[in-house]
Amino acid sequence: MKFTLSWLKEHLETDAKIEDIADALTDLGLEVEEVVNPAERLAGFTLAKVTAASQHPDADRLRVCTVATDEGERQIVCGAPNAREGITVVLCKPGDYVPGLDITLSVGKIRGVESHGMMASERELELSDEHNGIIELPSGEVGQLFTDWLAQNRPEAVDPIIDISITPNRPDALGVRGIARDLAARGLGTLKPLAETVVPGTFDSPVAVRIADALKQKGAPLFAGRVIRGVKNGPSPAWMQKRLRAIGLRPISALVDITNYFTYDLNRPLHVFDMAKVTGDLVIKPAEGGERFAALDEKSYSLRAGDMVICDDAGVESLAGIMGGQSSGVDEDTVDLFLESAYWDPITIAATGRALKINSDARYRFERGVDPAFTRPGLELATQMVLDLCGGEPSHVVQDGAVPDTQRAYRLDTARVVSLVGMEIPEATQRETLTALGFALDGDMASPPSWRPDVRGEADLVEEVARIASLTRLQATPMARETTGVPEPILTPLQTRTGMARRTIATLGYNECVTYSFIDGAAAALFGGGSDATRLENPISSEMTHMRPDLLPGLLQAAARNQARGFADLALFEVGPAFQGGEPGEQVIQASGLLVGQAGPRDPWGSRRPVDLYDAKADLEAVLGAIGAPARAQINRKLDGWWHPGRAGTLALGPNVMASFGEIHPKILREMDVKGPAVAFTIWLENVPFPKKKGAARPALGSSDLQAVERDFAFVVDAQVEAITAVNAALGADKKLIESVQVFDQFTGPKAEAQMGAGKKSIALSVRLQPRDATLTEAEIETVSGKIVDKVSKATGGSLRS
Amino acid sequence: MQELRDKYLTAVAETSDEGALEEIRLAALGKKGEISLKMRELGKMSPEERQSTGKALNLLKDEIDAALRAKKAALADAALDARLREEWLDVTLPGRPRRAGTIHPVSQVMDEVTAIFADMGFAVAEGPQIEDDWHNFDALNIAPEHPARQEHDTFFMHRAEDDPRPPHVLRTHTSPVQIRAMLDQGAPIRVIAPGRVYRMDMDQTHTPMFHQIEGMAIGRDISMANLKWVLEEFFSAYFGIKVKTRFRASHFPFTEPSAEVDIQCSWVDGQLRIGEGDGWMEVLGSGMMHPKVLQSGGIDPSEWQGFAFGMGIDRIAMLKYGIPDLRAFFESDLRWLKHYGFNPLELPTVFGGLNR
Questions:
Q1: Where in the sequence is the domain holding A773, given as residue range(s)?
Q2: Does residue A737 come out as left (phi exceeding 0), alpha (psi in the -120 to 50 range) or beta?
Q3: Which residues form the FDX-ACB domain (chain A) (predicted)?
Q4: Which of A249, A649, B6, B233 is packed most tightly, with the most Cβ within 10 A?
Q5: A8 pLDDT exceeds 70?
Q6: Domain boundaries, given as residue ranges, for chain B
Q7: B35-48, pLDDT tens digit by residue?
Q8: Chain B residues close to A472, C-beta within 8 Å
């Protein structure tokens, strides 16, 4: 919403400076976006007087002037024909920037005569296009600031333009008068009274108006207007054109300009029909649907059933409250007109405007809410202005419907206001504020004015009082914790775990990513998602159509992007939500790590090797350890389809899946354009059980001083036998004595098969025996060893390697 | 005696290998060594003679022994020195590689913010990111005809044709967590709710997903002046410099009165400096909770009152750490992750400081 200072002063009696007005507006909630102050570029120029002027010795058209300035007499060479003794001029001194010339002056020599500055023309100061001579002022003293002189004598020349943004709750501030009212309430001036006029009609309107019954209740409560005949629609007066231009509107004709002026001045949109182009009466009714409507914006719209329109016998002439029609619009030949002032229901206007995608000043205002009570007074004031500017003769007013009742009242609890805002605002001040804003007070009940549809409860009264009192003045008041002493932890166990997982994975050398929660449907489908339930109805791009079912697709896409940039080896991770369905709560927290390419760079130590599933497994186990997962989970091969079926595993506790790890399926890599190898792990953080124990104490350390014994065993087993089978069997051989079993080697492949037979491999176990009571004898060791061999052979179907 | 001494000490001094040194030791101090033999002769001497000769012999024996040991150590040192000279390695070669992981700025800043608000007695609340329209809009006093509900900045979930319910939305703000937290816990309550939010906006300075943090405190007499204190304490701790705020009246459907909050700042040579100068930068929206919102959360507005605020996490991360482009937050460019990321062991704490 733009306006100029002089326009504001039409409604506000004030001497306040533009800076103070701007600060107050922002503080009041009418946030200033920009102030354009033409006086700024004229700052510094002063008035001077030519005390003598003589012919330049070497140039016919130049005169050498002696000029009285605030810094004494100066000699200035001037080529203007009106440069002569006795005139008051505007002086630009050496060092001054002259906006119209885009130069900074310096002392010059013109044809051998020194010149100390210049006397400016209007064009040189960008005041107008006038350049026939230098400015001659009819008044003013030497040394007076030119901007001061302009402010007194030609205020429009230095009229600042203010642009403010209006929050949706303040339709009243969409007119200059509403803004003035806020400023007056703040104490920055006095709101001038608005003239009240009733222009008597001299004949009956030849046009009747009627609101269809369907719309009277809601869409169109009130429609009023009158015919004015015999007008002359020329250009609007200069003052009006200037104001409209200043706020970015193009003056068109007096009639159009008047409607625009009322829109911005009083938030009273109007419409004018050319009577020569209207046949019959005007009826407000819902469109049937499918009608074409050529609007004033020169576009054609297909109306929906129910869109509110104004029709004559010929059809739709106006889209009510949004935009008039081309066929009945006024032009310079208009002689008889119908001036419309109506009140439209905001929701109806918003729905139609949105559906047809028409933006207009009228729609903008009606959908936020104009003052319904001002419909008739606005019509009268506009009539008067038409008569003043275009002449003509008005009819009686015709009207259907009535001003909707907006009467309501809320209790002003002045103590509660103070308590909520936390600022001492005396009761009298609170009441004065509301009164100044147009509220009617009856005891402690406050009735909002008709132009404030947003005020809907006691809380709104608090807001009005607070913003006028100024939130900038608010003093910070400490708020103690609710409890004293050392505060208790505030994170839930899951929140702590999530943070622990995140920082552990990063410690393992992964870079944390935050990728979008939505991915493309194809990628989602690859990872078990992509259903309609997780589809966005209005995605912003085809890359972001579905909620991600898993974190891996996002990480793989990130990997592909990095590979395209030349980074082949990556360790990326993300901790965040994955979406199983489209209902609130169908969301789980995952932690996923992705390793792509080589485990290390090329270096002299041969660190470069492809990442493999054991890298992912080691990292997974480190994270699970850090978040307190139980050590003994089972590994199975119930895998989702995006894992390599032979090189991946799932860690579960019964049916409860905690994590998966392994190689990504080569097909997935191909689909997602990632150059492998790629291995990953995914942890379902909520599925990892929390430790049951309470308290921080740990069980006593069961260490023994007796010498532990390590024995190695190698077994020949079928190639598909899993090491864990052998390990578990060995552990079971003597649960008391055997402390740990490690796989320390495996021998597989063609060479192994050559030695041990087709389809065979060897695995080597190191078993650590920890005696508790007495040092082990060789016989005891032999006994245990025998048990181990038996158990492992039986469990694996293999035999001790000889 | 003197002769013996000269003979062996000279021999020790002149020897340059350990084998010869051992021979000297045997010759002098061995069982059949010259000095040992002389010791044996002591028995034949008179007591006086024995005493003086014995003492001299012992001294001589110790002296030669010490010389032998010293020489031996010197030879060993020389040998070690010679070996070490051969064992030179190029120390400028790289160490074995170890990846350095990083924490994303959004996570780091969330932890920073959590640490600060935890110190002021706020817990962390969470809520779903796919929300029903009641929690996201109605409960927050955003009427069905409110522009935010209609226009293009809300992502809607697909709704099956046979499902009469209004479509769910991707939460457009963290404010629905206010409602869930109130319904869960009642009053009094102090929570923050950081998390992802979604709006249909994608340009130079907007991404369709970003992060917000919601704050809410409800008590018997919590006021907007308390809100100002909380925010100033927060910003000062967060930026590590005393930061003033400016409250400006504004409008949000879920607060009344509402204020936009600016923080003090200045631009020096194109560089933003928080906490100094006379400029202001808008950073968040806030206000006293609307009575209807309290009611939606099952809290009686005639008994309780409180404030709420919402702030962009990505934005305050950009301000604090000088990150220029929001879009890069979600692109996972390795160079960006490494440059703007944080050491995972730098867990922000109030006691350890919040500035990295």
A1: 709-800
A2: alpha
A3: 704-801
A4: A649
A5: yes
A6: 2-86, 105-340
A7: 888 888 888 888 88
A8: 246-248
